Every structure is written in C-alpha cells, then in structure tokens.
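I am still learning, so can you show me any protein sequence you like together with the matching structure tokens, please?
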Amino acid sequence: MSFLTLQAIRKRYGATMALDGIDLGVERGSRTAIVGPSGSGKTTLLRIIAGSDTPDSGRLMLGGETLADGASSVPAYRRGIGIVAQDGALFPHLSIAENIGFGLPRRDSGRDARIRELMAMVELDPALLRRRPDQLSGGQQQRVALARALAPRPRLVLLDEPFSALDTALRASTRKAVSDLLSAAGVTTILVTHDQAEALSFADQVAVMRQGKLLQVGSPRELYLRPSDPMVASFLGDAIIIPAEMADGWARCALGIVRVGDQQPVSPAMIMLRPEQIGLMPAEPLTQPATEQDVFARVVETDFGGALCTITLEVERGASTAKIPGEAPATTRFSLPRAPMETPEPGTLMRLIINGPGHILPNAVATTSSLPPIR
C-alpha cells in the first residue's frame, strides 16, 4: 500500500467541481509533483491533504491512518504534515531562530540543538539565527521556511509553489538544494507547481491535472516521452502533434516517414514529436540526390534568445503536399530551439532529419488524412 493514498476524492464549490474523483498513491520517501494550468484543482487538492479543507466524498490515508473519509476529517494540527508556502510565510516579527523553532515545545531541552541542526541541514550560517526574515535573501528565506516545516519531523511535506517568487538563477539553485536535502532526509514530499520544467527535474512521480481530474500519473520520463493526450504532451514541453497514416510500426506524416515502434493503432492516428528530435541540415547544395521520402522546410523566422534561439520553419516539399480532406492544401509550420551558432538565416532551405521514434497519442482523435500509403 502507498504511504499516502487518495481514493475518489471529490470537492465542489457551488456549481464548480474542483476535484472530480482523484485517485493517487505516493510512496514513502518519494517526491511527487502535481502540475496543471490555473484552476485545475492543484491548490484544492493540497488543502485537502493538509487538512485545511475537507472533501465532499472520498478517502485520504497517510501511513495507514485515515485522515479524511468524506466530511469526517482529522484536524490539520494532528496530521503531522509540514507546509512550505509560496512566499515562505515567515513571521516578520520573529527572529530566524524563533521562526524555525515555532512548532517545537519551548520547554524541550533539545530545542536549541534541533534549531542548529536544521540550520546546518539547509546549509545556512548559524550567525543568521539572530536576524529577522527581511534581513535575508529570498533563497535564504525559503530555506528557513523549509527548516521550520521540517522541525517537528513531519510525516509528509507539502510545497506550494515555493520557488515561484525567486529569480531564474536563484530558483534553479534553491530547487536543487531543496531536492537534495529532502532526498537525503528521506522525507515524503508533494510539490504543487505550474512550472513543467520544475516538476520534471524535481519529482520521482508527476501527476498532471485538468478541470479537477488527473489526466496522467507516472515518472517524469514516461510523461514527457509517452504522454496520454495532446494536453499532457503540450503542457510538459514543446510538442509537434500531427496526423499520420500507420503501417507496420511506421507513420507517414507531414514531416516524412517516422518510426513509431511496435504499436499497432487504428489508422489514421495522431503522433507527437519533441522539437529536439528534429535535426536540420542545409538542403543546398544537395550532397546526394533527393528522394520522394525527403522532406524540406524553409526558415521563415528566427527569434534570438541568447543561449537558446527559436527558429520557425514551413514545410515546402514532402509528405505535407498531400491534401487533408476539408482543409486547404498544405503548409505545416513548426518551431525548433537552436543554439545561436546553429541558427540558419530566414529564407534558408533545410532538409529535416527525424531522430528517434514518434509517439502515438492514445487519447487523441485523429484528423482523417489522405496521406499516401507507406511503401
């Protein structure tokens, strides 16, 4: 049995169904990220786990103990759950030592030692203990908030978008430090975030939500490479999603003939490629004669972004010249990330090279295609 188990959790606010039958298991000592667009139900789910809200129906269990069964619920202060909020929520009038020790009994003889232990754990100088929160940087404040959450040795820690207020560089370093700390401590953790890169790098398990439902749960690699539908595919990163005709583990689509493995879906289907799977080489001059399977695209726009630029291409010749019924013939535009020294000028004709297999989206409705059969 999972350490944390949610079974058929439902919550309605008036006419709005915030959570619609959530089932989720979290293993002891693991890190789970819950992601989704605004209004998907992430915060409501976190509040129900924390005990600051109750479900209308369903069951929540932690370590074999039932914390909520419908409207019957164990109070938040008895759940043994630590919380780190988006802004840290430190008490501005208390010192750092008083903030960290807030949840520890004042008469506990080991209280001061525990506070110093936590400062070392989050890699902060003990000299900061006398300061107030406004005398610390944003990253330091988030580490203090984490230390405060860990002070009573909670069974579970909830992170509610704790890095979103930090600048980009500090956010990445703080996230890595917190991730390493929680792993070393063996603390079961749930992170709620709208940042897909944060979820993929932080978690052992990712759960994607939309409109109060869990769309897919799995490892970061599984969800990124094998999403269940277009929404999951696009939410977890840039995705090129196109209709294709299938035959014998191959797909003919607007970007040419793509290997799709051993899956045998009904044809036509929708397939997904990640932009990093598409390689480019100059089409002119041709080093070898073009074949009917070659696909060419012209660079129509470039967007300089420093270390990573974006180029937009339009397919000019290849399988995309086939007409899809009910649609105008053919132009397929897509964007790719490239390093600045690998960014071709607008107007350059490029040959496309597909690396690795495409992924068939099992829960996508394919547009009927008239692409020619694969030979």
Helices lie at 42-50, 96-100, 111-121, 138-150, 168-185, 196-202, 220-225, 230-235.
